[in-house]
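#help-structures
NK: newbie question, is this the right format to request a structure? protein is 11094_t:CDS:1
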Amino acid sequence: MNDEPIGSNSDSKNDFEVEAIKDHNIMSSEILNNIIEQLKEEIKNDKYSKVKKAHLYTMLSYLYLVKHGQQRVEASIIVAEAAEK
């Protein structure tokens, strides 16, 4: 049996979900890029000790990993959409 309620349009629901995911990815990507840029500027600042800078570099490396993972998700969505067409 179909789990969809009577009268629902699963295609339009899926399209809406895909668009919402794309919008979220764009927004979170912009936020992530801003955080990375701010962190780079903070690292350039001479007011931090070497230990503090090491922590900032660690945070920056984690953010780059997150960004790379996010780009892979976006690429997967594009491939899935192309496969549907």
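mod (FA): yep, format's fine, and the tokens are attached above. Residues 12-84 form one domain.
NK: thank you!
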